[in-house]
Amino acid sequence: MLLGKFATAVREKIRGNQAADEEEEVKKELELYTRDGKFYILVVESDEELSGPLAKAAEKTGCEVTVTENGISCMEKAMKDRYDVVLLTLTMARMDGLQTLHNLRSVGGSRCRDSKIYCMLETDEKRDEDALLKEGFDGVIRKPVQEAILLDIIVKNAPKKMLPDDEEFLQEIKDRAAEAEKLQKYGIFLSTGLQSCGGDMNLYREVARTFAENYGDAVDAIAANLFAGEVREYMNLSREQRESCRELGIYRLADAFDDHVNMAKEEDLEVAEIHFRRMMEEWENVTSGFCDWLGMEAPDSRIEEIFHAKNNGIRLPNKDVLERVELIVESLKENEVMQARDRITKTLDYALKETVRHKLYIARKEIDYGRPEQAVKILSAML
Q: Are 314 and 212 in contact (CB under 8 A)?
């Protein structure tokens, strides 16, 4: 079984570097009985990277799948053949998904008036999903469409006589789709993550748990290297997090880490600092999603600690901040670590710029971790 590096590391940690006697077998193929004919699906999507895997996943179940690229060609298909399910992209040129839906439902000669029609939105597309359902869609799903959600759509709409008799298996499909939909709201694609774990749901849960539990230490480490100007280490840590996210099916966050890898390659850490908060917000969102799904207590928000800490409301001029930082660095160089830590804490009592507060906070963390030399690098970079 080929597993991703992160999943492999977690499995070895759990199982003491010894292969399990047997892997959990959770993947079953849904094969529709075809003695009474085929189940027909029409996919309306111009992006072959999205439509190809979607069609392949549907065909594995025994469905007959047709792919077309826009609303006009969709109507041409619907005038000739009836489809049980139509998966319709909302944003299209010339005839958008909403107009196509209305035409499918009302145009004379359309053979898809009673078809189940699902709206496919982009991953981050902001739409009122309830309003789309009122327009006549039977459901709203996000791209890329996860296999678990696709299987659930097929099971919901295929005639019962075409489905397997295994009720427990059909319930597994329903439950898996519900989990996939829940995680997808946080930008996590369960089907992709499961592939990295060889289809082992228990292993995926443990990988997700490890990812969530590591959040605090990981964000502190990556921030420390960013503010200390350690380009290579920052790039390596960002790359590691990017690969872990890709294995878990966390697309948005993986893309954010990829951006930071490229910033580090270009030695443009000032730009990375500007965008670091946005990446942290997505990171915390994903971590909260996993914790919610796993029934774990979410870790304390690093954003709240760093950017929204309570202060006395007095804003220090930049000159005064730099003077304080110089004193803190001097204390650290003289090995007066606790004095330096106390000076950082007192400075954090004031209203500071977000980037200044973040650097002081991370420097104090490095002191707490027993790495005062790293704190010196972070603070010296401010002077």
A: no
